[in-house]
Amino acid sequence: MKFSDVIGQQELAARLRKGVREGRIPHGQLFLGEEGSGNLALALAYCAYIQCTNRLEHDSCGECPSCRKHLGMVHPDMHYSFPFPSNKADVATELYPEWRKEIPAQPYLNYEMWMQALNSENKQGNIPIKECHAILKNLSLKPFESEYKILLMWLPEFLGNEGNVLLKLIEEPPENTLFLLVAQNQDKILTTILSRVQLTRIPPIQNTAIAERLMGFGKTGAEDATRIAMMSAGNYLRALELAGNEENAYLEPFRNWMGFCFQKKLDKAVNWADDYAGVGREQLKGFFLYCLEIVRAVMVFPYMPEKSGLSKEEGDFVANFSKIVNHHNKGEKMYNWFNEAAYEVERNGNAKIILTDLSFKLARLLK
Ligand SMILES: [Zn+2]
Predict the structure, then answer these.
(1) Residue 213 sits in which domain range?
(2) How many angstroms separate the alpha carbon of residue 204 from the centre of ligand 1?
(3) Which residues pair with 84 in a beta bridge?
(4) For 177, which DSSP code?
(5) DSSP state of 194
(6) Do both 186 and 81 map to the same domain?
(7) What is the CA(44)–ligand 1 centre distance, in A?
(8) What spacing in Å lies between the alpha carbon of 48 and ligand 1's midpoint?
(9) H helices within 4-161, ranges in order?
(10) What are 33's strand-pairing partners?
(11) In the chain, N or C terminus with fewer CB closer than 10 Å?
(12) Domain match, 185 and 272 both
């Protein structure tokens, strides 16, 4: 997870990155934010940033060995802990396969969604004493390849009094160890733990950021997206629910356009560009945001083929398109071009010229 995948929260993200760059990484931390705020997404981006070996000011690089392992959630110095029903496992590591599948697909998930993914059959989740002992053991080892060893515990609200065995570890962790709790409900966290961590409050997501993401998914037009974002009160899960599974207005034009470019049918691509240029500025901006989402999905497809938020039709398209795009940094180039295009549209650039110009560039790239 990179910061660029996090919805909104830019001010907070900038503060977190600054802390890392300046070497201020408190060893016990709590990210506290309500459901749908993206506290887990932020925590994952933060951890990737800490362990990135080629850090940029605005994000982790996404390409160094550490970032690649983060993308697959297989970094040996990154441990995850979370609630699970006792009939499914003794310790969290046994459920890493499910975790690696669910989290990249929907890092904004809540407890109920996680239990459903585990087929918990109405059994309650819990972070049991065996898991606490496993954490103590894991964190006693030296980091394998990073400077930092990190334990990310999602929903420490599910730690019973057994959690107190972790106190000493949180208070005096081994050198270069980070204990990061990601929680929703302060009242349900053991007060003994609460008093030993540095608290970062994650606010609800800004409406504009939620609206942009909804438009990016092509779930809604600009007006609906703004209305839904306001109703969601900063909870992205709620916004997704409200947006429902409306038919996607952007997939078909995008698919057609890419088809013309790939088959080098330039006359058709130019005709298409002529037509589509008439849709209006807001819709065109939404279209480019959608292009960005699809290209992003295409680029991560080899690592997380079950990316949710995409419909079945989109998923199929992404799977096929990734075979064409995932060579020689084609995805990165496309991403940059669509980004520039969205920016130009916003600056009142000429839609026909932007689309035609892109058609030529894409035809050359995709051949
Ligand atoms: Zn990196």
Answers:
(1) 206-246
(2) 28
(3) 126
(4) E
(5) H
(6) yes
(7) 13
(8) 7
(9) 10-21, 39-51, 65-71, 96-105, 111-117, 129-140
(10) 202
(11) C
(12) no
Contacts with 351 (C-beta within 8 Å, 6 or more apart), sequence order? 276, 277, 278, 279, 281, 284, 345
- Global pTM value: 0.70
CA of 284 to the centre of ligand 1 (A): 33
For residue 10, the one-letter residue type is Q
CATH number at residue 96: 3.40.50.300
pLDDT digit string, tens, across residues 4-50: 999 999 999 999 999 999 999 999 999 999 999 999 999 999 999 99
Distance 245 CA to ligand 1 centre (A): 35
- The CA 72 to ligand 1 mean position distance, Å, reads 13
Q: What is the pLDDT of residue 247?
A: 53
Q: Give the C-alpha separation, 253 to 217, whole Å.
A: 14
Q: What residues contact residue 225 under an 8 Å CB cut-off, 6+ apart?
A: 210, 211, 212, 214, 215, 219, 243, 286
- For tokens 């079945």, what's the residue? 312
Largest CA distance in the chain: 69
- Same domain, residue pair 150 and 189: yes
Burial class (CB within 10 angstroms; exposed 0-12, middle 13-18, buried 19+) of 202: buried
